[in-house]
Amino acid sequence: MHSLSEEKLLVKDELIGLKVTVKECTDKTLENITGTVIDETKNTFLIETERGIKRIAKDIAKFEFEYKGKKFLISGSRLKYRPEDRVKKAK
């Protein structure tokens, strides 16, 4: 089990460069996409995969991030801030 403080650190940290997998999504064709976050906007992640670059809306998916050697499942709606605001506002 992960500590809540580690999860909060992830939510407030830089996500670009992290390995990510789409675990659940309202668009089933996007589930299980794995890659590296290469860009982030308020509403989307840009993920580089083996099959190209995918833009995925944050609020329709749950993402599993690899962070400091551990895996965390985070609802995209918790991350729906501009990256520079997420540091201050995310919970």
CATH class: Mainly Beta
Percent helix range? 10-25%
Strand order of the largest sheet: 4-3-2-1-5-6
Share in β-strands: 35-45%
Number of domains: 1
CATH architectural arrangement: Roll
- Give the low-confidence spans: none
User: Can you tell me the CATH superfamily?
Assistant: Ribonuclease P/MRP, subunit p29
Order of helices and strands: HEEEEEEH
Sheet with the most strands? 6 strands, antiparallel
Average pLDDT works out at: 92
Shape: globular
Keywords:
single chain, globular, 91 residues, SH3 type barrels, 2 helices, alpha+beta
Give a verbal description of the structure.
With 91 residues, the chain is an alpha+beta fold. The chain has a single domain (4-89), classed as Ribonuclease P/MRP, subunit p29 (SH3 type barrels), CATH 2.30.30. The protein has helices at 4-12, 83-89; strands at 19-25, 34-40, 44-49, 52-57, 61-67, 70-75. The chain has a six-stranded antiparallel sheet with strand order 4-3-2-1-5-6, covered by helices on one side. The longest helix is centred in the N-terminal third of the chain and has 9 residues, at 4-12. It is globular and about 35 Å long.
